[in-house]
Amino acid sequence: MASTDPASSYRAIENLIAAYAELVDDGDFAAVGVLLADATFTGAAGSVSGRDAIEKMLRENVITYADGTPRTKHVTTNLAIEVDEETSTAVSRSYFTALQALPDLALQPIVSGRYYDRFQRRNGQWRFVERRVKTDLVGDVSGHLRRSDADR
């Protein structure tokens, strides 16, 4: 039976949000696709849905280096999660800041914004059903994205 404890639901959702940051920073775009397999991802590059499309979008847009990573750290803060146990749904909003360091780029924040997420509990497990990324501040993303928002 699925847990209907709001605290355990909050923690499960918080762990999904943390997993996204870790997987992107590891350059494991296939695993991001699995994490968001039931979701629609909307960002500067448009909207894509499903595991394969999300993985493809990341591979086409995010630059990775010899170590297989984008050399970033995504920091997620100001997390607000609202769980509706009766409908097995939840929403969250949070801030993100991506830091990057490269041989020719000192460690610095390169982009920040907000995540707006929706979740659904299916078969006792919380899953992303939507992640909307709204970028607020953009620094030097030339070593992170193949095309910047200004190019679109």
Describe this structure in words.
The protein is 26% helix and 44% strand. It has 152 residues and is an alpha+beta fold. The chain has a six-stranded mixed sheet, covered by helices on one side. Strand 5 (105-122) and strand 6 (125-138) form a beta hairpin. The longest helix is centred in the first third of the chain and has 21 residues, at 6-26. The model has no long low-confidence stretch (mean pLDDT 93).
How many runs of DSSP E, i.e. beta strands?
6
Q: Choose one word for the global shape.
A: globular
Mean pLDDT: 93
State which percent range the strand residues make up: 35-45%
Write the layout of secondary structure elements.
Elements (H helix, E strand, L loop, with lengths): L5 H21 L2 H7 L4 E4 L2 E4 L1 H11 L10 E13 L4 E14 L2 E18 L2 E14 L14
Parallel strand pairs: 1-6
Antiparallel strand pairs: 1-2, 3-4, 4-5, 5-6
Helix pairs in contact: 1-2, 2-3
Short description:
With 152 residues, the chain is α+β, with helices and mostly antiparallel strands. The chain has helices spanning 6-26, 29-35, 51-61; strands at 40-43, 46-49, 72-84, 89-102, 105-122, 125-138.
List the keywords.
152 residues, alpha+beta, six-stranded mixed β-sheet, 26% helix, globular
